[in-house]
Amino acid sequence: MTVKAYEGTFQGEKAVWLQAGRYEAAVLPEIGANLIAFRDNEKEYRFLREPSLDEMEAFKARPIIHGIPVLFPPNRYEDGKFPWKGNVFQFPINEPKTGNHLHGFVHDIPWAVEKFGEDESESRVTLALRVREGHSVYTYLPFDFTIRLTYVLNEFGLHQHISVHNEGQEAMPCLIAYHTTINAPFAPNSQASDYSFKMTIGERWEMSERMLPTGEYQPLSEEEAKMKTGGLSPFFESMDNHYTTAPQNGRNYMELTDSRAGVKLVYDVGTSYKQWMIWNNGAAEGFFCPEPQMNLVNAPNVDLPADQIGLVSLEPGEVWGESARLYTIELKK
């Protein structure tokens, strides 16, 4: 099995490439540490939506709907306000139609490559974002911390581990999500109609016209409820929906099944993520975004218990971490 980690390019951008047997992946350190490609080259599967060369300028301007962007803090904050332990941090309003701040500050800025390498069974890369006074993120979240992101590729697929280390003297908010963009179809000879999915959702949050949770739940439709058991098209209707997670058998995951190719893609995200977002670009076939998220949208402005809404406080010196995996299962024919 060929195993390799090396510096190269992706559509002209600096990249670190990982190889392990039939699998390869690429991460873009200078564009938010976005894991921009995960492929099975034997089967010609392309699991993540990758920008073409012609799309690169648009991607760099808005690196959200390709690959696996890291969101910190994720999703929307009402009027850009982020109250935290007696202070109110003001974020820029970057979604004028809702008057909110959207998606945080780390998905479009450079991260440092700490190390990369390989052994006989796997390749790996670790990237870090160190925030201190003078850093662009510190302008809005004035805390000393480091986010560290490691990707490992081996015969079992793609493994991701992220950690946040509070290196300052005050408790800080720790809120993370991924705007993971999955191709459907990901197999070259399949169509979107060959795909169905399952997702460990619980309750659906009711959202206002500004796409902010009201704090109440709304009933699941008959079709939405099928997400819990599988067999539902990821394009059954237009979705920009917010759900609680409801782990099954100790796992929190999304499964995407290609009935034509006879393969299932599993996205196992870990139980620290208490919420799901799901967005499917108006039900336009081609890709959708199952987004694991620690916190409820607008959590600091919602009067509900912190544990219920995933509003995590990281004390000085503490480290939070979570792991996720993307892998395939061949189905019996």
Question: Describe it for me?
Answer:
The structure is a single chain. The protein is mainly beta. It is 4% helix and 47% strand. The protein has three helices and 27 strands. Strands 11-12-13-14-27-23-22-18 form an eight-stranded antiparallel beta sheet, with no helix packed on it. Strand 24 and strand 25 form a beta hairpin. The radius of gyration is 19 Å and the shape is globular. It comes from Paenibacillus planticolens.
Summarize this structure as a short list of keywords or feature phrases.
mainly beta; 6-stranded antiparallel beta sheet; 333 residues; 27 strands; 4% helix; 8-stranded antiparallel beta sheet; single chain
Determine the strand fraction and express it as a percent band: over 45%
- The separation of the N and C termini measures 27 Å
Quaternary state of this entry equals: single chain
Query: Structural class per helix/strand content?
Result: mainly beta
Task: Count every helix, treating DSSP H or I runs of 4 or more residues as helices.
Answer: 3
Run of helices and strands: EEEEEHEEEEEEEEEEEEEEEHEEEEEHEE
Helix content: under 10%
Radius of gyration: 19 Å
The major beta sheet can be summarized as: 8 strands, antiparallel
Topology:
Blueprint: E1 3-10, E2 13-20, E3 23-28, E4 34-40, E5 45-46, H1 56-61, E6 70-71, E7 76-78, E8 81-84, E9 87-90, E10 100-102, E11 112-118, E12 122-131, E13 145-154, E14 157-166, E15 172-174, E16 177-178, E17 182-184, E18 195-199, E19 201-207, E20 213-218, H2 222-225, E21 240-245, E22 253-258, E23 263-268, E24 275-279, E25 286-293, H3 306-309, E26 312-314, E27 319-330
